[in-house]
Each structure stands twice: as C-alpha cells, then as structure tokens.
Amino acid sequence: MSKPLRTGVIRDYDVKSPSVKVGLVFIYLVCFVVVVVSLFPIFWVALAGFKDLQEYVSSTSIFPSVFDIDRYIRTWTQLNIMRNYINSFYAITGSVLCALLFNGLLAYGIAILKPRGYKVVNSLIMFSLLIPATIGIVPLFMNIQNLGLGGFFTPLWFAAGANAVFVVLFRQFFESLPSTIIEASKIDGCSQLQTFFKIVLPLSKPIYVVVTIFAINAAWSDFLLPYLVLGDGQWQTVMVRLFIFSTQQTVTADDLMRSVVFSMLPPVIFFFVFQKQLTQNIVTAGIKG
Amino acid sequence: MKVYFRLISVILALSLLLVACGPAAPSGGGDTDTGNQGGGDSSEVTVAPPSELDDISTDVIDANLTATISLGNWPPDTAPDAERAFFEGAKAIMLQQYPNVTVVPAYFSYTLTNYVPMALGGTAPTLFQPPFTDPQLLISQGLVADVTDALEEFGILEKFSPSFIEMLGDENGRIFGLPRDGYVLGMHININLFEEAGLMTEDGLPDFPRTLQEVAEKGQIIREQTGKAALAFMASETQGGWIYTNIAWNFGAVGENALLIQDADGKWIANLTSEPAIAALEYIKSLRWEYDILNADATTTTWGSAHTLLGTGEVAMNFAADDAVDNPTAQNGLAVDKFAIIPFPAGPGGAYALRGGTCYMFAPNTTTDQAVASLGFLRLIGMLPFLDDDIIAGMRAGAAASRERGSPVLPRTPAWNDEEFIAMQRSIAEEYSNVDMRLYDDFFNSLTDGSITFRAEEPVFAQELYRTITNAIQRVITNEDADVFAAMERARERFQEYLDDEIN
Amino acid sequence: MLSSPSQLPAKGEFMDKQERLGERSYKWIYDLKSWLIMLPGIVLFMFFVWGPLLQSVHMSLYKTRNIELVEFVGLQNYIRVISREDFTQALLNTLSYTFWSLLIGFMIPIFLAILIGETLKGKGFIRTAAYIPNILPGLATVLLWKAFLSAERSGVFNVILGYFGFEPMVFLSQSNLVIPIIIVTATWKGAGATALIYMAGMAGINPELYEAATIDGAGIWRRIRYITLPAIFNLSSTMLILQIIFIFQIMYEPLVLTGGGPDDASLSLMLLMWRYAFGGNMDYGRASAVAVLIALLLLVFTTIYTIVNKRKTNWDM
Q1: Most buried of A17, B113, B477, C206 (most Cβ within 10 A)?
Q2: Are A232 and B123 a contacting pair at CB < 8 A?
C-alpha cells in the first residue's frame, strides 16, 4: 500500500465509521476555505494591478476589464522600482552578514564559552525579547543622527546584529551540540575563536539557514527604522518607498497597488524556492523555544 | 550544497524577472556619483520643455556660487511629461546661469510627520513647501534654516508684509522662508455628475449649490439620480476638523462665538459648545443620516483620496482650495472641462472662507549659498515677486506646462500684495487659459467683490483642535444615535485641557 | 569535517600549557577572551536595544525640544500623558486588542494545526498556502486589507457581497467592530505560521499513545482532549505570551487602516506613542513616557505569566 499512514488523532481504524468519514469531509472543506482565504488576497492584488485608476476606484468587479501588462511595466519603469530593488538587496546583504556574525558570536559566548558573568548578558537578552523594539525608536533615531550615521545602510546592517530572537535561536542550537566535540577542539589547541569557525559553525548549518531566511525576510519587510535612517535619500529600499507612497500623495491609487505587488513578488518567489527550508527548519528551530 | 544551488536559482529567477519586466530599466550606475546627475537615472522625459523657457536669458549670473541643492516637490516620474519637461528645462537653464550649482530633484512632498525625521536626519531637501500653519512650529523646534541673508541679497525682504514677517520670522527678526502662493478654501465640482443628475442651468452650466443647505439638497438629488455619493468628506486625522471650522464660521462661529477665544486675562478658552459650533456638527451629522450624501469611507478619507474620489467621478463635490486644482484633474484624470471650483457655500451665519497658503522653507543645514541658489531656481520658474523679463518668461512657461498636462490654468491667489505682479499673473493665466472661465467666475469674483469674508486658521494649536474635532465628527457620522452636544462637550473638555497644559 | 580522535594532541601538551599559566590565570584569560568574542554583539545590543530603552526612561523625565532635552520635569510627562482621556482610551483599546487576539488569534492556529494534521492528501499544499501570508511584508498586507475593507462599492468585500446580491457594508467605521476586524487581518497573516509550529509539536506525539487510548475506549474527542492538547500545552503557553507581546506592539495596522479612529476606537498605546512623537506634536518626552508605560505593562504581564507558569509546572510535578 502506497497510502501514507495517518499520524494524527484519527487513526486508520476510525475511518471506517461513517461519522468520522463525514468529519474528514468537513476537515477538507475547512482546509479548502483556509487555502482560499490565505491565497485570495494575493491573487486579488495581482489582478487589481491590471486596472487603471478609474477602474480601480469605481469598478465593482474582481477582474480587470483588460489584462494589460503594460500598466505594470509603466509603473515599474516610471517609479524606477529597480533602483529600490537594488537598494533592498544591499540592505539585506549587510543585514544578513551582521545577523549571522554578531548574533552567532554572542550566542556562542552564552551557550558554549560561558565566561564568568555571562548569565547577566543572557538575562538582558531574554529581557529585551519581552520589550517591543519600537519602544526605543526615538532615542535610537537620535543616537544615529548624533553619530552622523543617517542616510546610509550602516545603522540598518548593524541593527540586524542585535536581534534577541536570533541570539536565542543560535543559543538553543549551540547548546544542543555535543560538548565532547567542543572539548576536543580545546584540547586540539584551538583558540575560542578558532573553535567557533572550525567546529561550531560547520555543525550549525541548519540554524544558519533558518536565521538567514528570517534575516532576509526581516530586512526586506522592515520600513520604520529604514525610513528614519534613509529618509528621502537615494538609498530608499522598496518598503521605504512603499511607506512614503502610502503616506504622501505622490502616486495614484492604482500605482500604489502595483507597488504593493512589486513589494510582495520577491518574498513569494523566495518562499517557493525555499519552501522546504522554511516549513521544516523554522519548525525545528521554533520548537525548541 | 542544495542551499547554495537554490540561492543561485533564486538570483537567476529574480534577474530574469527583472529583465522581463523592465525593458527600460536603467543600469543604476549614476547612483554613486556625487549627485551631478541627481535623479538622472529616472526615466527619460519625452516631451520638449515649453518654448517659453527659451526666452530666459542663459547668461551666467554667478560663476562662483558653488552649492548642491535638492529641491522638494520636484515632479515625480509618474507626473505628466509636460510638467517634468518644464522642471528639467528650468534645471538646464539653471546650470547655465549658475555653472557650479548642482540641482538634485527631491520628490518629497511635505507633511509634518514625514519632514521631522528627515530634518533631524539631515536628509530633508534644501527647499520644501509647508503650509502657512507650520512655520512657527518648525522655527521654534529649530528645524528650518535662517535665510535672512539670502532673501536680502535678492531684495525680497523689502516685499515682506508685516504679517509675513510674523509668520516666517522669529522673535529676533530673522526670517526662515518666503510665501509661495495663497489659497482660499472653496468647493471642487465634478460636472459629469451634475449633468447626470440633471442639475444644469439653461446656459449649460452646472447648477451649483450656493449655501450649505443647497449642498445637502442638491447632493441628495445627485445621490438619487446617479447612485454615487455626492460629497467627499475627509473626516480623518486632522482634516475633518479643518473643514469643520470653515463650516462652523458660516454657521456663525466667529467673533464672540469663535471656536477659540481669549478671556480678559488672556487665557485661551475652547468655545466648542456655542450654538453655531453645535449647529455646524448637527449639519455634518445630517449629511450622513438625513441626506445620506457623504462618501461611505468618510472616516478614512484623506486629502489625497478625496481628490481621487472627485477626479474619478465617485463624488460630485469636495471641499477643497484653488491651489489643489491640479489634483482632481491632471493627477486623477478628470477632464479639465468637467471641473469647476465654486466659493465655499454660505451658511446661516455668513459666508466665510479660509485663506491660507503655502510657503517655501529650507532644511536646517542649508547654507546661505544653497539658499541663494534655491532662490535663483524659484526666480526661474516665476515664483519670486518681481517682474523682470526672465520671471515673466518663467511664469509663462509654468502656465504652458499646466495647460499641456491638462490642469486648469487659473489666476493664482497671490501671496504677495504687489498689484503689478498680480495683474501680470492674471493676464498670463488668461493668455494660456484652457477652461471656460464661467465655471470659475463665481469663485474668483468672490475673492475681490466682498461676498466672501476671509479668515485665517484658528490662532493657536490649530492641528490639535482639528484632531479633537475630527474625533467628534467621526463619532456622529458613524453612530446615528450619538449626541452632537455630548460629542462637542467632550471635544471642548479635551481641548481645554490641552490648552491649559500648553499655554494657559 | 571533524578532527578524528587520532589527530588529538597528546594530553601532556595541554597539561603543560595549563601548568605554565597556572589554573587561575588561565581561567582569567579564558574569560577575557570569551568576553572579547561577545563584545561586538554586546556593543550592538547596547547601541540598538538596551541603550535606547534606558534613554527612553531618561528622556521621559524631560521636557524636549525636538531631540534636545530642555529641562528636567520629573514625572510631569507621565502625569500629563496618563491624565489625558486618550490614554485611558488607548489602554482600554490595547486590552481589547489583547482580548480579541487571544480569542481569535490564539485559538485559530491550534484548530488549524489539528485540522491540517488530519489531512493526508494535499497536506503539504495546505500547509504552504496557510503559511504564505506570513512571508509577505506587513505594510503591503495592511495596504491590501485597506482595499478589502473599503466601505465604497469598489471595496473588495463589498464587491463580493455584491456578487451575492447584498448591499455594501461599512467595516472600519463601526467603532465596536474595528478592533476585531483589525485582529482578523493580523490573524490572517500570522495564523498559518503559528499553526506550523503547533503541527511540529503534535508530530512529536507518539501515535501509539492514541492507539493505547483507543483500546482504553477513548473516542476521537477524548483523544484530542487528553493527548493532543496536553502535548502542546507548554508550547501554547509560550505562544500565548509571545502573542501578548506582539499585540502590544500593534501600530501600523490601525495607523494605516483607520488612523486610530473612528473617534479613537482603534487607537492603541503604541499608536498613541507614535502620535506624540511623529503626529505633529514632536513631543518626544511624552512619547517616551508612553513607551516606558507600555514596557512596564508588558513587564507586569510577563511576570504574572512566569509566576502562573511556574506554579502550573509545580503542580504537574
């Protein structure tokens, strides 16, 4: 039998009962609704992008009257979204590197090195997990300006290097590494830093993949700090641009919807390519928390 | 390994996608250069600049002035080509007049919320355009540059009236900006819906409402005949209160009934429960529940979306001013011959209209050189109050660009009380006119014939007052049973508390 | 890959090193080096997280002029902020957000996880579809929902209602509905991802438990009640506190969808902070006071949570 075995509450022997069969039909119905509810808004916005302003504002149909891809192309070229894509790429690259390096090293210290007093740092990090980051946004913004760091990605990159969630994810993974290997490397004469790069890092690929994916998603989606830091300069990312579009009246409603599509396209593609890593690794990483 | 493979395939997929979508996508190489190209990597302007610009002398004015200026409100890439061509053309002349000045377009459109972080962060554009309500706040917070010297160099200071000095100066007499133009609040009309509703006079003109009562009654006809909402009402954030104050004046909330009064000790009193103040909110409430003419989304309608509604024919009327005629037409697609502006409808307490304006101000780190260069550019586009040949040519070019992009060419409400200058603006508007002036006569006549009394915005903490009143408006237009007096009494308490906190 | 045991140095070498340095100073140097490794991360945390938090507290005690501290005013900012009516309103709203989010946002992922877990065919697809909203940028989804919830005839929900012959409805301007509606949009985005985590938790249940329970005569409902739910209990209490922290941060959703209206019915504490800071007042002192109050509230919540949670585990023991 190629049919997979049931792993849930309902066992194979339950399925014989008619009421359970009805229940299963019901379950599939609910799941169907879930799928529709999850995906419909995305399809809708893609369709809405084909409408012109008049149609977008007035039409009482889900579907556009014509599928004119030129409208997308025009918005794309006129608003020069390409430049923002490139900027977002810069922002993401630096953020991911910082997120992996600094959070990883910090977690390494807490989980493995454990120097005297490390517990203080650990509890501070756990504490900052509880406090929304937006709360300190005003003074953070001031500090960035006082240091003259506004206008470029630098603060955004480094901000990704101070992410409590990432530290906790790393820490949990590092703690699960067999301590004998670490001890062995110590005896091997490796310094702490060498141990990290030669032993810990190669063993921790799964968590590095997860944090990379998270960091990419965060760097792509974030707009408040990027907006405050990058302002109206030439380095605006896609989301900063979208934020400005949505608060200033410089683009029309239909162009705004197409910009929404442009901002969702890369994550969706990314998701389909990395689907497995996302659904599997995130779960395994998350479950330990 | 698989991960890397996938990463590469993502990059490939993405780049393919980008190529597919962006045939004209630029290389983006100009980004890192010092700004010489500025927005040079934006899409190409295909229309030639107005020929009127050719009349401007391209002689070098100042070869030594070295500065980089970023100019806010530069027409974005989505703006009509004619407008962009005008600015690009002006920029080209600028580079000849001031060979060492670099002009960087900034697509920034001022809102206080957007401006503050940029000003603090040093990314605000050199030149930007706040409304008359904000200069004092910006000056007191140190968020704008002192440009007294530059203004003096151009001889603009002597043109300043005392009220401008009060508005744009600090207590030491330093000046931080200059007026751009004024506006008077009136009502925008989408003629298509009036035609559809059969509200036309014998001369083929729309049968405009003249009073607030007529707005309600004619609005009802429009709704019944066309099925569309008749009136856009932007009851969100601070904007609902902004419109409310003008309605309240026309119900008689002026003089001793004004919304904000000072008692004998100079203490500010929130006078929001006077008879006219209550009547005005009753009126707004009746527009929703009795006449049902407001657009359905009023509580989230903003200044911008109200213009979109009017421009796309979702509503027939919108309380808006004569400096925003571009929004429903050129930007949101209403044909210029289907648009009109009429005076703010009168009420039982009189006919008042808010007169305000927009000024030019400068980012806090602006140097005198940058300010001089920026003023040089304003002269080019005809926005300085002089009448030399170059400025006249700039004004004509601006009018030509407006006509070209389908925006009504109208006389502007002048910021400067200079008869000659105003007369010149009017004659140029007539020369380039693209509209049936009968649709505008009522409005422009009312500015001069005394049928409308001008008022400025409420004297203190206007934005906070507007926000408080907007809350009251939202309350009564979302709940049919809400008590108008209770809503206003609550607003009064809240705003009085605010006044006592802040100034009393 | 790893150094094989044969490559290990002789034990003596290691001992020599220790003896040379002496046990104590070796430990001291080890600590120092470890701290140096952690230092960059700590500095970043100080700059981006801890510092700004402390500064918020500091700043909340001052009268401010844009970003400068003008004069020390003690607790005056707090008094002013709390005494104003919009604070009470925002506090109640935030509690209401929390209530609805626990009612809707907390339960739905658990249901989803159980239901999806029972499917065989198409499980992967359903899981993927439910997860997708989570990877979309938050701002983009809020703008999208704004179009859905528009009260005009062209609003997407009204278009759908129209297909079924219903009259258009208003959504966001109903003050008693606005918070649940906003919570539904937030749940749409987050539920699939949370369900995924629950599913992983359920995957850890040994199927033999179910079989054993069946032999003891337990039906499907009793199996869920006595096996599935207890198995995810710890997980769900973690998700609960995360949800509360998340919902206290709600700001963009009301900011973009309603601006906090109608009549402040959807104003959250975080949005109130935004208003003080960026909404035209530029009053960073009071904005900080609101921020500190939010942090204190969260601290109270999490403390209660930890205490309750500890007791619970003790009972279980």
Answers
A1: B477
A2: yes
